[in-house]
Amino acid sequence: MNKILLTLVISLALVGRVFGSLATEAKAKYAAGDFGGAITDYTLLIESRPDDPILYNNRGLAKKNKGDLPGALADFSKAIELDTGNAIMYGNRGGTKLALGDWDGAIEDCSKAIELKPDEIVAYSNRSLARKNKGDFAGAIADASKAIELKPDYATAYNNRGFARKASGDLAGAIADYGKAIELKPNDAVMYSNRGEARLVAGDRDGAIADCSKAIELKPDYGVAYDNRSVAKKDKGDFADAIADASKAIEIKPDDATAYNNRGFAEEARGDHEGAMADFNKAIELKPDLAAAYDNRGTAKLNAGDWDGAIKDCSKTIAFKPDDVVAYSNRSLAKKDKGDLDGAIADASKAIEIQPGYATAYNNRGFAKNAKGDVAGALADYNKAIELKPDSAAAYDNRGNIKETQGDLDGALADFTRAIELKPNDGLAYSNRGWARFVKKDFSGAVADCKKAVAMMGANSLAGEESQAVIDYLNGEYSKAAAAWEKAIQLEPATKSILQPWIERAKTKAKG
């Protein structure tokens, strides 16, 4: 009997020693990033001790790091079932629910963790992200601030508060928070990328490029940083590099719909309409609910004169994102070009209602009002657009057209000149200034401007034909001038009232 008991004690001791050794190995594998090995070891340990919540919790962590979020969720739930008072386990499950997009579940678990352990900083930080994703920006900022209060050197909490501040429109606060996060954790690529994105939204393209470049230096396969740098470069007019960055993001992640959208954006700006449409189509194929891709494809269709296609895509954008002022504004332009002036004015007005400081919507509404004959209303809208955005070349150009029709040629010339100063490659502004100079009998100035307009816009565009007509007329080639003006009327029938008298005059001069 004593021999049997001794054997049992020795066997139990051996089992304990083996268990302890395996548990140590599992921890070491986890620490080394061998999550698969850790999962295998913890599974063996759980078979030995199926009622140990720590083992389920640890295996859940390994599964989460390996990308098996449903498996991690199941393990954390089992751990909580075995130990309902453990704050860390609720926090871990809350973080997993956050990663799965279950914002309400994440908030519930993180709140329970905080209830059990009021100084659980990770729970505050994760609840901050969940609240931000739900649109509760004030709650998100409060949670991240609490985490910072508990641990002033907690970089992740600054990063998360930056997320919430950016989402709430406080770009300066977001940039400051990301800066503090970077100060505390200077080798974190994600935090540089986040600050770069905030700087991009704030209009600091150089700062955005610098931050994204640093993120890429730290993490060369970081597709998001390439995506954001692509947009910043596109906005700076560096289309070739913008396309290269978006292409790199696609190489890193071939199903990155955002990268296709960004590359299409740069291609359209560069004049490659076919390439842009292909990329926007691919982005939508990969992510059918990507509002930005519909928005950009709608803009591309608008630029190509496909009014119906533009209206359809803008409407799709609005269905996904009812507060998208760009979609309303672009649909306004498409409706105006289709002749639906009331619809155009309504869409631009809706954009203004959503965002009263959106200068482009005032400019577009002015465009529609002018076409409808409401010159005073159009002028008021152009003035407001310029007040809100003093560097809006389009608004100066449009206001110049109204001043010209009112006989204020000096005012018109001043506006066209300002438009050109703001946008030196604006062929339309050169064409308009050329016409104003022509009417004012500044013939040498008119020819110089019209030649630039033709070079920039092409001979087959409305501005190009109008400008070529002026050049031909002043060169004494009256038949050619009449033909060019007639073609301009074909391109835009609304110009007939202005151009027809000049056609008759040119034809009369051609007869001698």
| Structural class based on helices, strands and sheet pairing | mainly alpha
Listing every helix as H and every strand as E from the N terminus to the C terminus, the arrangement reads HHHHHHHHHHHHHHHHHHHHHHHHHHHHH
> What separation lies between the terminal Cα atoms?
135 Å
Count of separate DSSP helical elements: 29
Shape: elongated
Which band does the percent of strand residues land in? under 5%
Number of strands: 0
Radius of gyration computed on alpha carbons = 32 Å
Q: On the 0-100 scale, what is the average pLDDT?
A: 92
The percent range for helix content is over 70%
Q: Spans with pLDDT under 50 lasting ≥5 residues?
A: 1-15
Main sheet characteristics = none
Using brief descriptors, characterize the structure shown:
512 residues; mainly alpha; 0% strand; elongated
What does this protein look like?
- This protein is mostly helical and 512 residues long.
- Helices cover 82% and strands 0% of the residues.
- The protein contains 29 helices and no strands.
- The longest helix is centred in the first third of the chain and has 30 residues, at 2-31.
- The protein is elongated.
- The model is unreliable at 1-15 (pLDDT under 50).
